[in-house]
Amino acid sequence: MRLSVGADERKPVVDAVLKLLKRDGHRVIFYGPTGRSSVPWPEVAACVAHDVAGGAADEGILFCWTGTGVSMAANKVPGIRAALCGDAETARGARQWNDANLLCLSLRTTTEALAQEIIEAWFTTQYRPTPEDEACLAVLRRLEYEASHPEEVPEHRCEGEGTPQETQTK
After folding, report:
1. Rounded CA gap, 89 and 67, in Å?
2. Do strands 102-106 and 82-84 pair parallel, antiparallel, or not at all (unpaired)?
3. How far from 5 is each of 20, 45, 57, 73, 148, CA to CA, in Å?
4. Whether the Cβ atoms of residue 5 and residue 28 lie closer than 8 Å to each other
5. Cβ-defined contacts of 9-13 (< 8 Å, 24+)
6. Domain 2-124 fold
7. Which of 40, 137, 121, 134 is nearest to 81 (CA)?
């Protein structure tokens, strides 16, 4: 599998993941620092996300200190479904129900052993959609379309019980 991997800092967990991926036979494209310097996390995320969305990579893995920055940046790219996963079960769910195609990890909290568990869960779980899952992904595709066509977005389309003005907390 062709994988695009990026990190804003070069920490031991990044090197361990790169080694694991190569050992497992993946072809890896890496974006990030080669030494102790750092690179801006939005730039790294954009490179990996565009690789995945454009087909240069089948999937991607991103790292930043919390993992949230790279996941937010990657999800700005149409076609990307980046998931910040702090454990193997979350990775399984992201793949099975959300058809996630880009794994985001925290440099602060992800140990080498935990990264291995998460990556194993990620690559051994396939998307098995229910009709509800497909409907949710259709909403994501609609939101992506609307982001680039704001003139076509209805003023208010949410349904629910009451309006925000009618909602009260106790």
Report:
1. 17
2. parallel
3. 12, 9, 9, 14, 27
4. yes
5. 9/33, 9/38, 9/63, 9/64, 9/65, 9/107, 10/34, 10/35, 10/36, 11/63, 11/107, 12/112, 13/63, 13/105, 13/107, 13/110, 13/111, 13/112, 13/115
6. Ribose 5-phosphate Isomerase B; Chain: A, (3.40.1400)
7. 137
- At 164, the amino acid letter reads P
Which residue in this structure is represented by tokens 């790169």? 18
The residues carrying an active-site annotation are 64
The two structure tokens encoding residue 167? 């909602």
pLDDT, tens digit only, all 170 positions of the chain: 999 999 999 999 999 999 999 999 999 999 999 888 899 999 999 999 999 999 999 999 999 999 999 999 999 999 999 999 999 999 999 999 999 999 999 999 999 999 999 999 999 999 998 999 999 999 999 999 998 888 888 776 666 665 555 555 55
In the block, residue with structure tokens 């991926």:
21
- Is pTM beyond 0.90? Reply is no
